[in-house]
Automatic annotation (TrEMBL):
This is DUF1307 domain-containing protein. Keywords: Signal. Residues 1-18 form the signal peptide. It comes from the Bacteria.
Length: 335
């Protein structure tokens, strides 16, 4: 019995001596960190290089056996590392990485309760407020005044993938500002190109270059010339028929009511002057139609320019039906 007890005590002493005799390495040296991104929006990446730690331990303790190595690996696997902050980092800021569940690992190596690292190497950024955002793009307005549509052109190719949305697109007006806003989350795109968004991503640009039409035909300074031109076009078109002129109608901007989407200029056009006429052929009978000029754009002097005017027409059963239809879609009679 004494012999067995002596043997057991010797074994325990050997184990204790072996444990106490480990030459410990500092595990904190094997926690590597790096930083990426831009200043104020940086991110930390960290890695506990366990293989290097094990190798270093075995080099310092060449007599360690396979069982010791296995226990060391198991102890390392228990360790948890938590950084005090992982994102929105700034240069020179300090991040604390805390070690937890280290009790078993402390038998083999020296391990700190925490490790402090300073943030470095983040790219300097340019803050994009509304004024700076406006410099990155240009606004191209097309169509008619008060019904203008917008196209945002990006001038900086580095942010060409960013989408923008324009408030009240389709109702833009010359001389007023269009509110433009980034459409979606493009923070990473901006950061990768040295930008950081300040604010909600909105800004304004002036609207200009939209075509204008007279609200009322009477507002056009050269209205008599335009009426004369329209009659000439009608007479030229139906030289082999007898033409009876009825009422004349005008509409400035299309209201959208009754639009078909098939490009019917009389229904969908802007700046339209039309006349109701009956065309009677000697042998082919007679037809009633509304015929006129569309796209009667006014210039800065208030005169209608005819260079881009287009001839439009549409057949009806009679004058009354034609008048009713035109008035229903926003035309008013020219007296």
């Amino acid at each position: 019995m004494k012999k067995k007890l002596l043997t057991f005590l010797c074994l325990m002493a050997t184990v204790v001596l072996a444990a106490c005799g480990f030459k410990k390495v500092d595990a904190g040296n094997y926690l590597k960190t790096s930083f990426s991104g831009v200043d104020t929006k940086g991110r930390i990446t960290y890695q506990f290089n366990t293989e290097e730690l094990i190798t270093a331990f075995l080099v310092e303790n060449p007599k360690a056996d396979a069982k010791t190595e296995s226990e060391l690996k198991a102890a390392i696997a228990e360790v948890k590392i938590s950084p005090s902050k992982t994102e929105n980092l700034s240069n020179d800021e300090e991040v604390t990485l805390t070690f937890a569940n280290t009790k078993n690992l402390e038998k083999f190596v020296t391990i700190p309760s925490e490790k402090k690292v300073k943030v470095t190497g983040l790219t300097a950024v340019k803050k994009l407020n509304s004024e700076e955002l406006a410099k990155l793009v240009s606004l191209e307005a097309t169509g008619f005044n008060k019904k203008g549509k917008a196209k945002v052109r990006i001038n900086d190719p580095r942010v060409a993938s960013i989408r923008f949305v324009v408030e009240n697109d389709g109702q833009l007006e010359n001389g007023k500002d269009a509110k433009i806003k980034i459409d979606g989350n493009f923070d990473k795109v901006l950061e990768s190109n040295g930008y950081i968004l300040e604010g909600d991503g909105s800004f304004t640009l002036p609207v200009k270059g939209l075509k204008t039409v007279a609200d009322k035909f009477e507002d056009a300074k050269n209205k008599d010339e335009v009426v004369k031109k329209l009659k000439e076009e009608i007479n030229k078109k139906y030289t082999d028929a007898t033409i009876t002129f009825d009422k004349t109608y005008y509409r400035g901007l299309s209201s959208g009511v009754g639009e078909s989407g098939y490009g019917d200029g009389l229904i969908e056009g802007n700046g339209n002057l039309v006349m109701l006429v009956r065309v009677e052929y000697k042998y082919a009978g007679k037809r009633t139609l509304a015929i006129g000029l569309s796209n009667l754009v006014t210039n800065a002097e208030g005169n209608i320019e005819l260079k881009d005017a287009q001839l439009v027409d549409k057949y009806f059963d009679d004058f009354a039906t034609a008048a009713q239809k035109l008035e229903a879609i926003g035309y008013t009679e020219v007296k």
